[in-house]
Design goal:
The protein is of the alpha/beta class and 260 residues long. The protein has one domain: Aminopeptidase (3-Layer(aba) Sandwich), CATH 3.40.630.40. The protein is built from seven helices and six strands, in the order αβαβαββααββαα. It has helices spanning 5-8, 49-66, 84-93, 127-137, 152-184, 218-225, 227-246, and strands spanning 27-32, 71-74, 98-103, 115-120, 187-195, 207-211.
Length: 260
């Protein structure tokens, strides 16, 4: 049991009472990876990825909400298992403007350390990323959403256009996160990568998966156990989110919530 486990299993932090979230503000959905029966990666000293992911997501929620410019929700606020498709559906039902999945995986090579950011692609950027996506996708299966009451040929065109715009938005966010991480945090080589991650398959929501470090590396695991390091990770991600919204105000309210 790691020291922050009790805090990580507690309800997510609420927005600052001095700057309450307004209904019309853009919604950022944070997705702490794994949970419940799925511990995720297990660190050298026994730290569970699911606890690190939730604690870091709660800290990022606190920092984003404190500014009063966003609504922020988590796909899980305690140590429970949430299937991958339910995480995506959660963001779609609420009309999220951004979706950020937070992780800290493990590799066979324990010398590899540092953060990285992943976007959706049909083909993986490298073997390491392909293996990572395979491990993350093993938690569940995903079926993409469809346009209701729309002729098939029109649906295909609309879906293609929406996905193209979404992937461009995801790439911009990934670039921002990598840039901000580079100021204060260690990055792996070629930190902006891509693969077919199921949890990033929302057609209409720009989405990234952030690996905050590797639990298989002793230094990364030790850093991610420290609240001050998680606060530094969250601060870099908050700056990236701020910069992303600053260049597309017309999109800041996000897509309309899914029907049904």
């Amino acid at each position: 049991m790691w020291p922050e486990q009790a805090a990580a299993a507690a309800p997510a932090a609420r927005p600052s009472p001095t700057k309450p979230a307004k209904p019309g503000l853009p919604l950022v959905v944070l997705d702490p990876g794994h949970g419940g029966k799925d511990p995720g990666a297990i660190g050298i000293s026994g730290t569970y990825e699911k606890h690190v992911a939730l604690a870091a997501a709660q800290e990022l929620q606190r920092q984003l909400a404190a500014a009063g410019r966003y609504r922020v929700e988590l796909t899980r606020t305690r140590d429970v298992f949430v299937p991958l498709e339910q995480r995506v559906a959660f963001a779609q039902r609420r009309g999220a403007a951004l979706f950020v999945s937070m992780h800290a995986d493990a590799l066979g090579d324990r010398s590899v350390r540092g953060a990285s950011v992943y976007t959706l692609s049909d083909a993986a950027s490298d073997r390491q990323t392909a293996a990572l996506a395979q491990r993350e996708n093993a938690a569940d299966r995903f079926g993409g959403p469809a346009f209701r009451d729309t002729p098939p040929e029109v649906s295909r065109i609309l879906s293609s256009l929406v996905r193209q715009e979404t992937r461009q938005g995801s790439a911009r966010l990934a670039s921002r996160v990598v840039g901000e991480f580079g100021h204060d945090l260690r990055l792996i080589q070629n930190p902006a990568r891509h693969a077919s991650f199921m949890v990033l398959k929302a057609a209409d929501i720009p989405s990234v998966l952030v690996e905050m470090g590797f639990m298989s590396n002793r230094e990364d695991e030790a850093a991610l156990r420290r609240p001050e390091h998680r606060a530094k990770v969250a601060a870099a991600m908050r700056r990236a989110v701020d910069a992303w919204f600053a260049v597309r105000p017309e999109k800041s309210a996000g897509p309309p919530p899914a029907q049904g």
